[in-house]
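Data card: per-record layout.
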Amino acid sequence: MIKILIVAEETERNTFIKNLTDSLKSSCDVEFGIQKFWESESNYDIIHFHWPEHLSFRIKRKSLPPTPNKLKKIKARIQELKTGGAKLVLTRHNSQSHEYEKGFSKLYDYLNQVVDGVIHMGSYSVQEHSTLYPSSLSQHTIIPHGWYHDIPNTKTFESARAKLGISAKAFVILAFGAIRNKEEEDFILEAFKKLDLPRKQLIIPRGFFFNNFLFFRLIDYLKLNFYQKIIERKKKKLAPLNVQWDQKFTSKDEIQDYFNASNVVLIPRLKILNSGNVPLAFYFQKLVIGPNQGNVGSILKETGNLIFDVKSVDTLTNAMQKSISKTSKGTENYQFAKENWNWRIIGQSHINFYSSLI
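The structure for this 358-residue chain is written out next.
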């Protein structure tokens, strides 16, 4: 039986790691955790990394860039594990870290080149990796992002809209996922303003607030009053534009409210490789609009969903307009995810790749 360490944490909001470990348990001896990477004396066959930044300093489940000394320790530990016989695998969720890209670039570059195997979620990632790391000797495979079958889905369209205070006649576009910068939010809002539709509604559950990550975490931790006042002011400013804006983390129950109340799901990114919100939207039987970038663009085109050019606001407005007559695509999306992204298939694909390395 293959002995595996998944170097990641399970979280309530993102059950990817839980679903992965559960899919492997019947055939493998699986452990997970970041601290075990540093402390465990077990002899693992496979050590599987997901987000390189998790190896650095952690504050409230958020990572800070490694100091030169910390990076040296990470490299030393990895070499120690390789010398002990473990094969290293990296799932390439992102090209670089979403937070402090420059601060984590050395760690990302090192891990992408030192591992024995790289798992990609689409063909675009394979091509990008070969361009960025031409001297890498890693083996490669493509395993798509599994779907989120474990998210509650008991709310009706009517009850979800009632809870969110949205008219049953509104055409609702859900921009799900944290808006990471002002450019993303401005792009989405501008495209929505141009959409010629009387009963349109845009929902942004976690809008953009502040570029400085450290400052944001500080005020979030201290719960400073002015932080909430700014949020309330922005909500009121956008409400007349038919934009329901907020700045919060969503619970599993709130996720189903947002998705079941929406007609279309928008991936609100101008720069992206993968997005777990694509399989999440497919699970909730929604048509998806996303950027023609990375694996996301390729997957949306291959499955007949809608894309936009990140350099053209008008292309997003056009995609929004087209989506009005394509909402029935959501049923096909669900069936596609059920057949191709279920965790039985995802788990077995991982096991096959692990086996090829040892």
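Known properties of this structure: The chain has a mean pLDDT of 92. The domain at 2-146+342-357 is CATH 3.40.50.2000 (Rossmann fold).

See the next section for split statistics.
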